[in-house]
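Lecture 7 notes: from sequence to structure.

We start with a single chain of 206 residues. Read the sequence below before looking at the structure.
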Amino acid sequence: MKYYREIACWENQRRLKELLIFRDRYMAYVNGRIAQTNEECNIDEEELANLRFNINLTVSRVTDVVQASGIPVVITRREQGFLGERRQGSSLFQDLFILDQANVHSQYVVDTLERAIGVYLRNRGYSMLRTINPLWWTGKAIRGVVRIPFSLIGAAGFDADKAESSILGRLLKAMIVLIPVAAALLTILGHIELLDVVKGFIGIGS
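Now the structure, written as C-alpha cells:
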C-alpha cells in the first residue's frame, strides 16, 4: 500500500472513512462487551456478533492503512518461559480480541487508530494539492513505466525487489528515465533552433 504522502485526495478521503468506521465499530463492540460483563443492560448478542464479523472483514485493510500512515502497529508480548522472560512482537490488530492476554488495553487500539486518522486529516490539504499538480501525475507515470521491467521479472518468478535494488536495476531505471528526457530536450532545442548551437558547443557535426 502506498505511503500517505503518495496518494491523491480521493484515496486520502477513502482511508479516512475506513479508519473512522472501523474505530466506531471497535468502540461499539468493546463497550458492548463491558456492559455485558457488568450486566448493565440487555445486550443484543446478534448485534455484537455482526460488529465482530465486520471488524474481522476489514481488519487486514485497516492494518495496511494504519501502517501506511507511519503509525506503528507492533506490540511486544512478554511471556514467561523456562529460561526466563521472553519478548515477542506481534501486530496489534492481529490480536484485537485477545489483547488482555498481551496486557494491552483496548484504548490503545483506539489511540492508534486516532493517531492514524490525525495523519490523514493533516495531509488532506496536501493531498488536494498533489491531485491538481500535473507534475505529480507525470512523476507517477514515469515511476509506473520504470516499474514495468521489474514487474515482468516478478511475474516470471524472480525477486523483483532484489532486482530493482541491484546496481544493474538502478542503472536500468536511470536509463529508462534519462533517455526520454534527453529525447524530449533535443526535440525542444530543435523546435527553437538551438540544436545546431548545442552541437557546435559540444563539438558534434561540422
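DSSP finds eight helices and two strands in the chain. Keep this in mind for problem set 3.
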